[in-house]
Recover the amino acids of this structure.
């Protein structure tokens, strides 16, 4: 993590940077070449604020790749194995971006703003460069750029009431994974009912970076009666939900089938998307690794893992823990791990090397909490 004294102009600041510091941000890290707040004090308090009331998070690091032009749909479909043919204007979809070997380069949310205009709201990798390079030799009529767009996440059970205070009753009709273009006192926005928390939540995409401070303060003022707190994306909640973190739980050497995300791969569609042949081969031959959940039998972890922890069965190394944390709600140490597929048996015991200590762990299904996503998809 970075303290304020080490922040330099080499890394971009978000339009909300000053507001987050003013509201108590204590630590930052770098994501998509931009600073992101990672601490407003106690991470467990941040978790409880999220699940009990609401938090506002600066996630401007979720940079957008805009794909615009007559061939925008065709080009966007080339990037992902998920079938977008039925994606309506105003709809959002979780997609994977794959390379020629079927490896995952990013797992953004795709937003369709018009028939010929898409955004990819990115995880932490340089898909703008990937897409621009592909477009150069595609023969398709598209323009690829990074627009002036910076999202905030408003997440938690009170987020709907806060949105209602900001935008009126009509916002209550916004469905899960749909978007609207709106204004708030002249501030141009796109609002989607999405977020990286598995709680009820919204993402508010600012389209004028000069108005970041004003937007932050307006949301915090509207949220004050509802217990809104400044916050950061919660590692505890995202591991509870089995949500994936790029570079930790997956990378370019990880394919969708290893993660149980075969539903996001459509090999029957006509489009010859990047990685199609490789993904067909992987599907037919089967996978050698598989992601599982683990419950670790040890005292509460004092924070998320900062290294990959080896996993063994007997004397054999079978994989590694990619994300781990103590859940105060479940009162368990929970983890995501990638292990040999033949050893991925629910209920079996394995051994995890946690900072030099051997700890027994039980293989369990994931997600660990609210498996049907009732909190995120339901009404408030």
């Amino acid at each position: 993590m970075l303290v304020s004294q080490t922040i330099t102009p080499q890394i971009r600041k978000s339009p909300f940077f000053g507001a987050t510091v003013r509201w108590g941000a204590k630590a930052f890290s770098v994501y998509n070449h931009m600073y992101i707040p990672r601490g407003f004090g106690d991470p467990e308090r941040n978790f409880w604020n999220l699940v009990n009331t609401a938090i506002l998070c600066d996630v401007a690091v979720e940079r957008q790749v805009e794909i615009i032009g007559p061939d925008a749909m065709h080009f966007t479909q080339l990037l992902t194995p998920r079938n977008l043919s039925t994606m309506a204007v105003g709809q959002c979809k979780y997609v994977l971006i794959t390379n020629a070997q079927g490896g995952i380069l990013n797992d953004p949310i795709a937003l369709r703003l018009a028939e010929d205009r898409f955004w990819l709201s990115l995880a932490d990798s340089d898909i703008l460069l990937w897409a621009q390079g592909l477009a150069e030799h595609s023969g398709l009529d598209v323009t690829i750029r990074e627009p002036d767009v910076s999202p905030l996440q408003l997440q938690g059970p009170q987020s709907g009431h806060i949105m209602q205070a900001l935008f009126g009753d009509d916002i209550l009709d916004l469905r899960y994974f749909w978007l609207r273009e709106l204004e708030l006192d002249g501030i141009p926005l796109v609002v989607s009912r999405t977020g990286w928390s598995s709680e009820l939540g919204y993402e508010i995409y600012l389209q004028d970076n000069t108005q970041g401070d004003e937007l932050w303060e307006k949301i915090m003022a509207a949220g004050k009666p509802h217990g809104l707190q400044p916050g950061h994306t919660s590692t505890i909640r995202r591991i509870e939900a089995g949500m994936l973190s790029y570079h930790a739980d997956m990378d370019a050497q990880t394919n969708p089938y290893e993660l149980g995300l075969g539903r996001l791969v459509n090999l029957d569609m006509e489009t010859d998307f990047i990685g199609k042949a490789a993904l067909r081969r992987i599907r037919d031959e089967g996978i050698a690794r598989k992601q599982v959940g683990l419950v670790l039998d040890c005292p509460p972890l004092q924070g998320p893992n900062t290294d990959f922890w080896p996993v063994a069965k007997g004397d054999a190394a079978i994989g590694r823990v990619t994300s781990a944390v103590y859940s105060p709600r479940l009162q368990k140490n929970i983890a995501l791990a990638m292990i040999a597929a033949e050893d991925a048996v629910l209920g079996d015991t394995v051994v995890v090397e946690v900072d030099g200590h051997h700890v027994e762990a039980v293989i369990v299904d994931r997600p660990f909490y609210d498996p049907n996503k009732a909190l995120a998809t339901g009404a408030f």
The first helix runs from residue 17 to 22. The two ends are 35 Å apart (CA to CA). Residues 160 and 380 are 7 Å apart (CA to CA). Residues 1-5 have pLDDT under 50 and may be disordered.
